[in-house]
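so im writing up the methods section and need the RagB/SusD family nutrient uptake outer membrane protein record in one place, dumping it here so i stop losing it
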Amino acid sequence: MKKIGKITIILFGMMAFYSCTNLNEIILDEYNATTVTDKQAADGILAPAYALLPSIYQHTNLFALTEISTDEAILPYRGGTDWGDNGIYLSLHRHQTTSTDPNVRNTWNLILQGISRSVTAINSLKVNKDPSANLYIAEARGMRAFYNLLMLDLFGIAFQKEDLGDVSTILRTDKAVDYIRTELLAIEPIVETTTGPGRITKGAVWGLLAKLHLNAAAYRDPYGATLNHTAADMDKVIEYTGKIISSGQYALSADYFAIFGNDNHTNKELIFAIDQRAELNGHNRMAYFSLANDQRPIPAYPAANGTDGPAITPDFYRSWVSAYGNVDPADADPRFYKRNVDPKVECVDGNSYNIDRGILRGQQYGLVYQSGAFVKCPDGKFKVGPLYNTRGKAPYPLVVHTETVNFTTAGSDYSTGYRVEKYEFSKKSSSGRNFGEADIVIIRLADAYLMRAEAKLRKSDATGALVDVNAVRAARTKSAPALTSIDLNTLLRERGFEFYWENQRRTDLIRFGKYEDSWTEKSSTDKNMRLFPIPQTAIDGASNLTGYLKQNPGY
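--- predicted struct ---
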């Protein structure tokens, strides 16, 4: 036990782990190492391998890189000043990011720390005598593979490291793909089926393997003019997604927005997710990031408001319009919008109040806010009415979200752009903003269906692909109309409808050969931008190892 105490001293100060998993972290040092059981020590050793996920998936880290760099999200200088940040969000969107971008650097550092913590857990658990140690080693290997998959997807490299004292071997292209696949296959027989969605399970392993094979062409040849999606890779996608679908363990959610609600930890659509319930270590920035500054979703906390952050691009909105023609997408597709605030109802009970979800357009309604407090009706209920932009001086303009949003002065106004409220605001927070209890989705069942549909379609099985796509469309209580035909462009559009704001768009656009297309405020056709630059700080830090860490082409 003394050895365990020494090697786990690095856990000091890290977050408590997820209570549902019974992996409550024990902080070990030379003074208390003899007071804990092997099981408690194993729990404390594994916890840090998962603990950085909420930080990686924060709005200014992975989300910025995977969504604001695409045709789905845009973040201008609001009002000419807010969200300026030296132009980093404009550069991300325009594919002009540099190796000094702080969002790129922070995401790189967090993923690298995740790899390091996973290696630490693997090494430390090898000397633990509790029966759970073998399972925990497998989970730590799974997390190391997952972090490396993120690193490969974003930066084109993976780090192979088995011992804490080793210098990591940098892997690229085929070698990186083979390494990650081998690691996932090694743990598949060991990990359990019921410890998720907050931990690595068999379903998570199958989902990660499916994603690896689906994107393998881009990983093996990241700058290829045409990606070679091999039949062998597509067969593996069909195999692993089939295991998920046929397992009977998961179910498509009848309520689309329940997938992203505060009670989603038990939602059977989730396969692998970040457990961030309010009593733990989560955040709710995905809930308030896009909302108008004058939208205040929680009656208990008048100070909890939006940030006037990113909007969807007109290009992405037009994909919905073109799909449904004369029918408003809000009426045609349950994934587009869910009305919770009725403008005709002036007074509402605070306990049942929820703001609208999905893509928010036009005049916004919500709790009436004056002089630092919410206005109440004579019966004690909360008054609801049109929202006004109170950032400037009276008379205040209405908060009306417009389709047009761009980097011009007019297009960067506080109200411009349709907003997204996909994740629900936490009702257990101590301030309305500092915690989020909705698990952040990494893999869910709908993705298994649509990955399998894509693999079938790339193997010329359009009939089978259509069945899988329509299974997802029909699953919701208010179902989207069935498609009568399918091709790759339609399938990419369908993935946009299903997974917007879920960190999928950049990878999808690259795989479908669309990342060099033009969209609002972006015209770059440089294939080098498919990968992000390795942060200059990382290259400088490795300068004592000649030729070890080389910058990606184009930077």
